[in-house]
Amino acid sequence: LGYTNWELVEASEKASGLACTIRDESRFSWDIGVHCLFSHFEFFDALLDEMLPPKEWLYHQRYSPARMRDTWVGYPVQANLWRLPRDEVMGIVKDLAQKEARPPPPKPRNFKEWLHAGFGEALTQSFMAPYNSQAGA
What we know:
By secondary structure, the protein is α+β, with helices and mostly antiparallel strands. The protein has helices spanning 42-51, 86-101, 111-135; strands at 20-23, 29-32, 66-68, 71-73.
């Protein structure tokens, strides 16, 4: 991108950030990443616990706030709106309330329409579209 005013800070011996590969004693490669596994289904959680006891799980604490409006906003942003300016929060909440009162939109034809359908116009413009345009850059 042409920036020269940055500094890389890494806690691990090797650069990895939120995604890396770890090789164990048996030379097996384990890929560690942000979106490895999320579940809120009891039957699935029980199956995982049966396959691999929880004491053997590798837990990865994620903290990756978004920089917005000259402050850090915890991720996911939609759960941390209170960090944004009051007027912006009120606009997002009002838009979401109105979204729920409207008939469902037609099936999205592209990613931006999917964001609007799921997160509303205000949150999409405030965070979802800018974030995803950076993530895909």
